[in-house]
């Protein structure tokens, strides 16, 4: 038997549970993977809450991004072998918070030896999101990038990508995250009342790109500082971004492989700051759900 973390009904964390089930076999084009690490993301609790719809069959496995070792190859798969270390998003209907899961071969990327399983598990969702967000609108060196929600895993990676491209990066986050935001080379601006004035002081000529990872009123407070509403991209609140003239984040198929290479060469650090065993997956999800985590949180079903 193999363990997987699921939710049995839509709503709060009280609906979550660790259960036993047979290790899933791969179908055509799929890889069965022994999970070594899984990234925890806000989308995990949003799916469980029902905020993204309630048409999933229950119980529903939780978790979206994994790194692990291939245990079985499905029919028609080429380019991978049993024992290969890979990273990728889990196939629909499967979960990352598990001892064993399934990844589509076309969506898997070989894990470089230079990247730990914990760091690799942050790439399919978080790092790829940061890559797409900082490339959807191309900036030139010296132009100004504002990251709203810079203290989380996606925000910290976006800030580092901005540094690699020599953008002027401004990161908005809570005061408790000042040190880690500034460690990326970004100019830190504390969130809260009056944030627009504080941003205007450090960027009086306006913002060439706003990457929004918070949404709602936080986005509205700084939106007018963009040189054009079209230079607002939201991964957290597409509806608000679109309403004010911006756009939703557009995910690309090449982002995962490209950011893997960037991390492999040490140009970006995923900043994994918390690790939990599978038995404490509920605690990991709650930590991310509260919004007070810094950097990335991962679940490790097996010791590295």
Distance between the termini: 21 Å
The helix content is 25-40%
The secondary structure category is alpha/beta
The radius of gyration computed from the alpha-carbon positions, rounded to a whole number of angstroms, is 19 Å
Mean pLDDT: 95
The outline comes out as: globular
Keywords: Cytoplasm, NADP, RNA-binding
Organism: Oerskovia merdavium
Protein name: NADP-dependent oxidoreductase
Pfam families: ADH_N (PF08240), ADH_zinc_N_2 (PF13602)
Describe the protein in words:
This protein has 304 residues and is of the alpha/beta class. Helices cover 27% and strands 27% of the residues. The protein is built from ten helices and 16 strands. Strands 3, 5, 6, 7, 8, 15 and 16 form a seven-stranded mixed sheet that branches.
Quick structural summary:
The protein is an alpha/beta fold and 304 residues long. Helix content is 27%, strand content 27%.
How are the elements arranged and paired?
Blueprint: E1 2-7, E2 16-21, E3 30-40, H1 42-49, E4 60-61, E5 65-73, E6 85-89, E7 100-104, E8 109-110, H2 117-120, H3 123-135, E9 144-148, H4 153-164, E10 168-173, H5 178-182, E11 187-190, H6 195-202, E12 209-212, H7 216-223, E13 232-234, H8 238-243, E14 247-248, H9 255-264, E15 272-277, H10 281-289, E16 296-300
Parallel strand pairs: 9-10, 9-12, 10-11, 12-13, 13-14, 15-16
Antiparallel strand pairs: 1-2, 1-4, 3-5, 3-7, 3-16, 5-6, 6-8
Helix pairs in contact: 3-4, 3-9
Subcellular location: Cytoplasm
Subunit structure: Homotetramer.
Protein name: NADP-dependent oxidoreductase
């Amino acid at each position: 038997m193999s363990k997987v973390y699921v939710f049995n009904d839509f709503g709060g964390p009280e609906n979550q549970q660790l259960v036993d089930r047979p290790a899933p076999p791969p179908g055509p084009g799929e890889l069965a993977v022994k999970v070594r690490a899984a990234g925890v993301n806000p989308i995990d609790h949003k799916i469980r809450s029902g905020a993204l719809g309630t048409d999933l069959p229950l119980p529903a496995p939780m978790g979206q991004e994994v790194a692990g070792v291939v245990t079985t190859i499905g029919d028609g798969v080429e380019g991978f072998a049993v024992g290969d270390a890979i990273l990728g998003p889990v196939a629909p209907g499967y979960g990352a918070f598990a001892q064993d899961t399934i990844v589509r071969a076309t969506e898997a990327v070989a894990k470089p030896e230079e990247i730990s399983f914990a760091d690799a598990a942050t790439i399919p969702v978080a790092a790829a999101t940061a890559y797409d967000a900082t490339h959807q609108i191309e900036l030139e060196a010296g132009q100004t990038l504002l990251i709203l929600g810079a203290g989380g895993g996606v925000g910290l990676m976006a800030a580092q990508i901005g540094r690699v491209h020599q953008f002027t990066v401004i990161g908005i986050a809570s005061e408790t995250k000042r040190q880690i935001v500034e460690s990326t080379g970004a100019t830190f601006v504390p969130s809260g009342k009056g944030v627009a004035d504080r941003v205007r002081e450090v960027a009086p000529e306006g913002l060439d790109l706003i990457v929004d990872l918070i949404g709602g009123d936080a986005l509205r407070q700084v939106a007018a500082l963009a040189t054009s509403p079209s230079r607002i991209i939201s991964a957290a609140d597409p509806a608000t971004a679109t309403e004010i003239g911006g756009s939703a984040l557009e995910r690309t198929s090449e982002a995962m492989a490209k950011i893997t290479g960037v991390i492999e060469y040490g140009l970006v650090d995923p900043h994994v700051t918390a690790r939990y065993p599978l038995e404490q997956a509920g605690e990991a999800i709650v930590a991310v759900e509260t919004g007070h985590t810094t950097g990335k949180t991962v679940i490790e079903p097996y010791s590295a």
